[in-house]
Structure formats: C-alpha cells, structure tokens
Amino acid sequence: MPLVNLPAFAPDLIADLEKLGTERVDTPVIQPAEPFLDMAGEDLRRRIFMTESETGKSLCLRPEFTIPVCLRHIETATGTPRRYAYLGEVFRQRREGSNEFYQAGIEDLGEPDVAQADARAVRDALTVLANRLPGIKLSIVLGDQSVFEAVVAACGLPTGWQKRLVHAFGNQAQLQKLMADLSDPAPSGVFGPEVERLAILGKLDDEATLIAHIDETMEATGYSTNASRSPADIAKRLREKMELASTRLDSRTLALLKEFLALELSLAEASKALAAFADKAGLSLGEALERFESRVAALRKVGVDPETITYRAAFGRPLDYYTGLVFEIEGEGLVLAGGGRFDRLLTLLGAKERIPAVGFSLWLDRIASMKGAAA
Length: 375
Description:
Layout: H1 10-19, E1 23-24, E2 30-32, H2 34-39, H3 42-45, E3 50-52, E4 58-61, H4 66-76, E5 82-91, E6 100-109, H5 114-132, E7 138-144, H6 145-154, H7 159-167, H8 172-183, H9 193-201, H10 207-220, H11 231-246, H12 251-261, E8 264-266, H13 267-281, H14 286-301, E9 309-312, E10 325-331, E11 334-341, H15 345-348, E12 357-363, H16 364-374
Parallel strand pairs: 1-5, 7-9
Antiparallel strand pairs: 2-4, 3-4, 5-6, 6-12, 7-10, 8-9, 10-11, 11-12
Helix pairs in contact: 1-5, 5-14, 6-7, 10-11, 13-14
C-alpha cells in the first residue's frame, strides 16, 4: 500500500528509532479481528473497521500495532529480548481527525529488567518527540495499574469485584459507577423469580444441590448442555452474580479507594506518598511499591527527572491489555505519545512462555500539525 500523506519528517523519525537499537518491522493491514475484540478494550473495539473473509472469518483493518507486532514475534519464533520499531497506517474511527492516520513506535519484548525497560520506554518516547518538536514544552502523566490492583486486592474484595474494578481502571465514569454500585448493592429481585426462589430454598449455598437442580431443569425443558454451558458452569456464574450483588463496600474501604484515586503529585514524591497512604490505611502493597520505586530510580538513571513527571493514581489508558506502567506525553494540549506495560498479552496471544513487554506509540498527524503551527 502506498504511503500517502506520510509526514515529511518520517525518514528522520525512522532514523531516530534505528539509533535507539530497534529492528524495523511491518505487519499486514488486514488483521484477524478476534485478538482486538478479545484484548484491546471496549473503547477500541467500537471503533474498529470490520470485514469478513470469503470463508466467514472475521477480519479488520489494523487499528493499532501492538497486537500485530506481538503476533508477528510469536509466528517468527524469534528469541528475546527484542526491540521492534514500526511506522505505518492504522485505521479506526476518531472523533477528530482522519480515520486513517500514521503511527510509529517501539515494542520492547522480553527485557527481564522491568524497571529499566519501563524507564527506557518513557525516555525513548521523549527523545523522539523532542527531536521532532524542538522548543515545544512536553508534559508527562504516568499511572500504574499494578498499584491499583494491589490496593483493590488489599481491601479484601471478592475476586469478581476486583476484576471489575481493575477492568474499569482509567475509565473514570465506569469506575465511579462501580464504586457506587458497591456501596449500594442491587435490591432483591434483580435476578428474576427463579434465582430468588433458589436463594430462598438455600440451593445457591450448596453447590452440588444447585448443579443437580439446574441439570434436572435443563433435562425437563429439553435444553441441550452440548449447545451451551454445563450445569456446573451455570451454577458457578449464578453464585458469582449473587455474591457480587450482595457485597457491600463499607464506608471506610470506599473512602480509602477514593483517597487513593485522588492522588496526583510529582513522581519524585509519589513513592513516599504511596507508602504513607499504605501505612495509614493498614494495607500491604509491598511488591507493587518496590516495583514502583525501582522504576523511579531507573528513570533517574536514564536521565529523566521524576520531578518533570506527574503521577496520577487514577490514570489509565483505554486498552485492556495493560498490566503496569501507563503513560502519555502531551504537547500544547495534544496527546502525542502513549504507552505502557503489557506482560500478559503475548501469553494470551499464544506465546509458550511468559514474555514481559512494554512499548509506546506516536501520533504522527498530531506531531505534524504542531510542526506546521510552529513553522
């Protein structure tokens, strides 16, 4: 596909990426849709351009590069660590700007020193942007999903609620709604008369009895277990729903979550603030705080001053595969780069072993518009 409207600075940007010790790769524009639908997150899913093969397989136009680059790495069976660079078109619906635009970036796969790789990702994104936009003031906001996960786990919530809250991380409206739901559980009757009857009979508390009841009901109604979930699966889901609906977040725990999510300060002061929050709340955040502090130290080591970075405890990015560090770099109100850590993604995509990974992408059309305005 011809590179139409490729920014004039693209060759210099490619040279920057090569100097950072990367291997340039490309991926097909037509991609299997399933990985994006399963792993990319609701925000991206609803903006993907879908199509279908002649055999009925769901396909899409490439909406981003991280998943395709990871799939390519798995398919080519190359070892790690590897640092891949890319530059090409992506296709997704946007509220502003063209639905076809260029992105470039780096995916850093398999570096065992997580703190070093995280710091390098932030530094490299800053370096490339500073080279393309000299004189433009850049600001960085950083979050950490793993710290939020540690806080939620330490609060002792049921696993189902932990998953829901973590899934909503970065989406303020959804997170606030879930916390409101937790503080005011669903009223009786929301699951229908049959489930309420089972609860009254005490069958929801006895797994074996519940499974047997569901099995009998399915046989009596002629509902085939081969066509759907088994009685055990249905029983597990019913019990989980009832547990989620009956869980109430006490006022102290709700206040702790709100206090944590309100944290926003210089990254240089964030480690101390998080440790103070954990001590005050009586929460054990040991490993998550150690990883956080190691990253701050690694940033200093690679020449990025933590004083210039804002840590926002509630900050996340709208992609479901992130697991730790998340960050964005802005210039004059425009998000120019964004990235984060995605340690579970390659395993979910089919890698035979766990591969730690971090990366970032650059919005070339936004960089071009700022260069034009500055000219």
